[in-house]
Structures are given as C-alpha cells and as structure tokens.
Amino acid sequence: EVGAPWWLVIFMVIGLGLAMGAMNATLVSVFKIAAIIATLGTMQIFRGTAWLIKDATVMVKDPIILMLGRGRLFDVIPYVTIIAVVILAIIYYVLNFTSFGRKVYMVGGNEHASYLSGININRIKFISFVISGVTAGIAGFLLAGQVGAALPQSGAGTEMSTISAVILGGISLTGGKGKIAGIILGILILQTINNGLTLLSVNAYFQMVVSGSVLLIAVMIDVVRSGALKKQ
Amino acid sequence: MGACTEVNTFSGGDRIKGSYMSGLDASLQSKKLNCKKIPSNLILFVILAVMVGVFSALSRDFYSYYNIVAILNNLAFTGIIAAALTLVMITGGLDMSVGGNIALTSCMVAAMYNLPNPPNMILVVFIGLLVGVFIGFFNGFLITRLNLNPVITTLGVMTMARGGAYVLSKGRSILVMENVTGFLGRGTVARIPMPLLFFILVYMVLAIILSRSKFGRKVYYIGANPEAARVSGINSRRIKTILYFLTGISASFSGLILTGMTAAGMPQHGAGTELDIISAVLLGGTALAGGKGSIVGTLAGVLILAVLYNGFTLIGIKWMPIRVFQGILLVGIVALYEARGKKRF
What we know:
The complex is a heterodimer.
Chain A: H1 6-30, H2 35-53, E1 58-59, H3 63-70, E2 72-73, E3 77-78, H4 79-97, H5 99-109, H6 111-116, H7 121-147, E4 149-150, H8 158-168, H9 180-199, H10 204-226, H11 228-231
Antiparallel strand pairs in A: 1-4, 2-3
Chain B: H1 2-35, H2 37-58, H3 65-90, H4 98-113, H5 121-145, H6 150-169, E1 174-175, H7 179-186, E2 188-189, E3 192-193, H8 194-212, H9 214-224, H10 226-231, H11 236-262, E4 264-265, H12 273-283, H13 295-315, H14 319-341
Antiparallel strand pairs in B: 1-4, 2-3
Helix pairs in contact in B: 2-13, 3-8, 3-9, 3-11, 3-12, 3-13, 4-5, 4-6, 4-11, 5-6, 5-11, 7-11, 8-9, 12-13, 12-14
C-alpha cells in the first residue's frame, strides 16, 4: 500500500476479500467442513499470512484512503457511516427483493426442502461466503484508513463482537431467520454498551468480561425466542 | 415468495426429522468404522514414526534425550485437556473455553499467592481447581439445560474467563515462587517429570473409562444418535454435564501445571491453545459430528502435533509460518476425514 494509487488499492482489497471468501466458501460448500471449524482454520491462516507479509506497522499516507476512513461529508456525516449504510441497503434489497435473497432464507430454513425444490444450495452458500469475505475486505480497508496504519493484529476479536451483534439482532443461530433492521439495532446496542463503558471509565479488561456476557445473553435470547427450550 | 414463507414455517419439524435421520446415518457409519478403528490409529502412528525419522535426519538435536523429554513435558498440558475434550467431542459437543480457563486458574492462584498473608498453598491449588469445576459446570448448565449452541457458548465463556484473568492480574504477569505448583510443573518422581506422569495417568484412566465402562459406551451412543439415546432412557444431559465438568477441571489442572512450569501467573497463558487441542483431537479421528473417536487416536494426534511443532522449531522455521500451517492443518484434517466418511448431499 505504498506506491499504488487509491483506486487500484480498493480494487485489490475487493479482489482479496473475494479470494478469501471464496476459500471459505469452497471449504464449506465443496468439502462440507463445518463452517465454524473451517473459518477458525482460515482465520489462523489469514492472520498468520498477515504477520508473514509484514510483522510491523505500515503507515497509510494516501490522502484519499485516509479521507475515506476519517473524513466527513459536509463535515457532518462520516464517510465510513455512508459506506456502511450503502452496503446495508444493498444487502437489504438483495435479501428482500431478489430471488437470490429468498433462496438464502430458504436454504437456512430447510436445506433438504430447498435441495428437493431444485435450489443449488452450494451456489447460494458459496455466494454468501464470498459476500462476507468482500465486506470484511472493505472493513479492513476502512480500518486502515481510520487508524492511518495497517497492522497485522488489527481486527483481532472482531468476530466475537460481530457474532454478538448479529445474534442480538435476531438472526437465528440455526439459520433461516433474520432481518437487516435487527442487525442495525444489534450493532447500535453493542456499540452503545462499549462506548458507555468506556465513558464510565470501566477497566478495559472488565469490558472483555462484559463482551463475553453479552454474547452469552444474546445466544440465550435466541434460544428462548426460537422455542428450542420447550422442544427439549 | 409465498412458497418460501410456507417452507420457513414448516422448517422446525423437518429439521428434527433431518437431524434424526443423519443421526441414524452416523450410528451406522460408526458401526462400520469401529471395525476399522485399529488400522486408522495404526496409520497415525506410522505417520508419527515417519515424522520422527525425518526430523532426526534433518536436525541432530531432535533425537536427543533432552529434546524428547522436552517434547513430552510440553505436550502434557495440552494433552491432558485433549483427552477430556475427546469425550466431549464424541458426544458432538465442543469446548472452546479451555484457554480462558487456563488463564483464569493461573491468575487466580498467582493473585492469592501474592495476598499480604497468603493462605496455605495446598488450599490455593484447590481453589484453582474450583475455578475449572465452576467453569465446567457453567458450560454444562448453559449447554444442556438452556440448550445453547456449544461453540458460541464456550466462546463467550472463554472471553469472560480471560477477561477475568486480566482483571485479577491487572494485565501483568505475577511471579509464583513456591513449591506446590512448582512440584506440579517442574518436579520429578524417579526422574520422570510430573506433567508427563499426570499425562500418562489421565490417558490410562480415560482410555479405560471410554472403552471398558458403561459410561463410555453411553458417551458413544449419545454422539452417534442423540434421539435414540434419549428414547432408550440415557440421561444425556447428566452425562454431557459430567463431561464438560471433566474438561473444565482438566483445563484448570493444566493451568496449575503451566503456572508451575513458568513460575508465573499470566493472563496470556493458554491463548490459542484451544485451536491446537481441537486440531489434535480431530487428527486422532474424532468426528466433529460426534459418535466416533478414541483416546488412543487422540494420543497419536497430540504426539504428532507436538513432534511437528518441535521439529519445525529445530529446523529453524519461525512462528509466523507455523501459525499459517496450523490453520491449514486444521482445515486439511477435517476435509480429509469428511471426504473419507461422509456421503455427498
């Protein structure tokens, strides 16, 4: 990220996200590995590779990348927020108004029935993982712009807060249910807790305990709501 | 679109049926694979022997008394947990909280040792073990009584435990210079290091329980077909809770050993250990879906990983490529076993 112009960097970031998403997707949909174990393994691979490439901090000097990470439109709305809203809007549209989106719900709700009704399950799963990879790539790019540096350890533990937010937002762990509005609420709740704890000057270590508890509470809410407690 | 929503509402019933059917498949498969169990373990031990040969050829220091003892000593603390986790994974569960458990135990012991007037160290060690007992029962309660997803639950518990360790130690490592944990971690009996002794003991006891006792058979049964196990009157909640408790207490015991080995209580102790442990158990032939696995297999998995990392270090490979390799190994192992056992959907 030293010599290339900003548009090439964005292009490469999206390509990289695509490639990593495709790797996860292949492992899950072709080799049938449990998604949690597969992505745990690739997490280790990707982070190890990040350390291999550069085990030191790389400064980001490109003004446009920095602006995208830190700047504000009309000095009010951060560009990061705008990008997030745009991505959420696109995913909202895809989930609710395209046949792909409906198929995503259907595969999650009942994989066997979708298989029988002629849905290419592997393709749906593949595309979903690739989308997740691309968004993670964009997030990494924006984070580099925001921090002003690329660090091999950036994003450590993000998976915890992301999963917490998604589950808090009502996306069922067993699949088939969930709304974008729920995710937005989940993220806002989580960020409010984090920000509030910091402002109350709660010990950073204690915040770790809190984030673990939030994840547990989110999973409990999910179980109560899905009625799995009564089923047993 | 109407059809989709209709499928969604019926998904619950079909899901149960689906898991019931796959459970039946798994039980049939495990019966088939049980006959082949000894050969597949044999393959692992052949791989281990080949690796020892290769590393001995590549590095002069590998096949020395001190290095062999060092390997065995270092694998003891992950190995003890891997043995207990094997049982949990045979029932189809998973415990990611072991790393946090190690850290919390270690910091708890260190913090109590550094009190103005510290209590008797034997008492402190018992309180350290109580940490594992508590975490184990907490995991068991959440997973079996509240029916939560084991991976996500224990991930949350891991963060809580590690956070607790950081709070207790204020983010620093605390010196523990005393004899009780020192004996557990560095002591020897008849020139055999204590960690290795515990390692052998745990494997012998668990291997006998798993293959020779009624309890062990029930563990396999629950993993192979939970529905059939329930119908035939097996209290799977109780058995699973006992297994999570076992994993918890073995993790905190490993925490004690590690505290003794390093003479320090550190909140970073055991970070990332869960990945190594799970890799070893999976390498030993335990299925992620449950119903398959053995202590001997896990022993082979633990040994192979320990020899591999030690050999890599001796050849002069840095930790960063090893970390990449760790991930590739985990994914590769699962892909290999899945390709061998499972039919395509």
